[in-house]
Amino acid sequence: MGKHLVLRLVAKIFIPLILLFALYVQFHGDYGPGGGFQAGVIFAAAFILYALLFGLDHARTVMPPALLQTVAALGVLLYGGVGVASMLLGGNYLDYSVLAEDPVHGQHLGILLIELGVGLTVASVMTVIFFTFTGRRG
Amino acid sequence: MLLGLLAVTALALARLRDLFGVVMLFGIYSLLSAGIFLVLDAVDVAFTEAAVGAGISTVLMLSTLALTERKEKEPRHKAVLPLLVVLVTGAALVYGTLDMPDFGDPKAPVHQHVAPRYIQQSPAEIGVPNMVTSVLASYRGYDTLGEVTVIFTAGVGVLALIADRRRTRRRRRRG
Predict the structure, then answer these.
(1) Number of separate domains in chain B
(2) What is the DSSP secondary structure assignment for residue A98, as one 8-state letter?
(3) Domain range holding B17?
(4) pLDDT per residue as tens digits for the range A11-68
(5) What is the pLDDT of residues B73-85, one digit of tens each?
(6) What distance in Å separates residue B4's CA from the closest CA in chain A?
């Protein structure tokens, strides 16, 4: 436990902040710079930082690879599902205007959902790639 | 200024044989590019470049280095032919830029096509203050879906190639 004590303490303070910032970027992408892609990468960076300092085994108990793989697929499914939903509601594929009574509200909802899908996929895929690279003994 | 720094970093990258240093320089290169994007008012692109280029890809390259060697092998051939190819390609590209409209020219074709429509209609149609988001997520939703699929495929590819070797080995032993 004595190894990298300062780094670990700083990381422990920073990781929640990084996660919070990622969520901010995710859901504030409509108003400022950012969106699902950037948020996903920042989210993954927090886990990678954790894995670097506390070891891969700890990180794997926090984020089991099976869960990550499921989430990665879920993100793409959510994105595609929004498209299918808008088709079922009578619009074109990925035409969010039909998702709510008011077209502008529908657009907001659609963008929010697909950005969430992007964020989920990007975050979990980045973490999965890092886990597999570091988990492999050369 | 930033472009100059970028050129210096690129030259250093080409000279360096220590791959650890190369990875670090690539991170700096990405950060400088992010700075350039920021100066050009492309905040979203700068954000992505800083997060992906300087952040994640550096970590991924480092973890790759841990699996392979740290030093680059000495080149076996002389660099004359590659240098010639690069010079010719570079000259062709520079020649190509001569036809491009001036930087920031409002009459440039790119500002005449769909961009004005996006800028005029997006507040009424989408109502999202960040126009980049409305273009990426709504007008160009197909493209973004494609990008997400690419990332997903990359993850699946990495998993298929180098993950879970233990399980396959066990299966092989059984069979």
Answers:
(1) 2
(2) G
(3) 1-72
(4) 889 999 999 999 998 888 777 777 888 899 999 989 888 988 888 888 888 888 889 9
(5) 777 777 788 889 9
(6) 27
Q: How distant, in Å, are the alpha carbons of A86, B136, B142, B146 from that of A124? A: 26, 21, 21, 17
In angstroms, rounded to a whole number, what is the distance separating the alpha carbons of residues B170 and B175? 9
Whole-number Å distance between alpha carbons of A80 and A85: 9
Cβ neighbours for A82, distance < 8 A, ≥ 6 positions apart:
A94, A96, A99, A110, A113, A114, A117
**A33–B47 CB contact, under 8 Å:** yes
Among all chains, which residue has been given the structure tokens 């999202």? Answer: B128
Contacts of B124 (CB under 8 A, 6+ apart): A104
DSSP assignment, residue A28? T
Instruction: Provide the chain A residues 34-93 that lie in CB contact (below 8 A) with chain B.
Output: 34-35, 37-38, 41-42, 44-45, 48, 52, 65, 69, 72-73, 75-76, 79-80, 83, 93
**Any idea of the CA torsion for A135, A72, B62, B164, to the nearest 10 degrees?**
20
Largest CA distance in chain A: 61
d(CA A59, CA A51): 5
The whole-angstrom distance between A1's CA and the closest CA on chain B is: 23
User: Is B109 a member of any domain?
Assistant: no
CA A31/CA B129 separation, integer angstroms: 5
Q: Identify the closest residue of chain A to B160 by CA–CA distance.
A: A132
Closest CB to A48: pick one of B59, B145, B149.
B59
Which residue of A21, A79, A82 is the best one to mutate when testing the B interface, meaning the one whose CB has the most B CBs within 10 A?
Answer: A79
| Any domain includes B115 | no
Report CA-CA distances (Å) from B97 to A14, B92, B100, B112. Answer: 45, 9, 5, 19
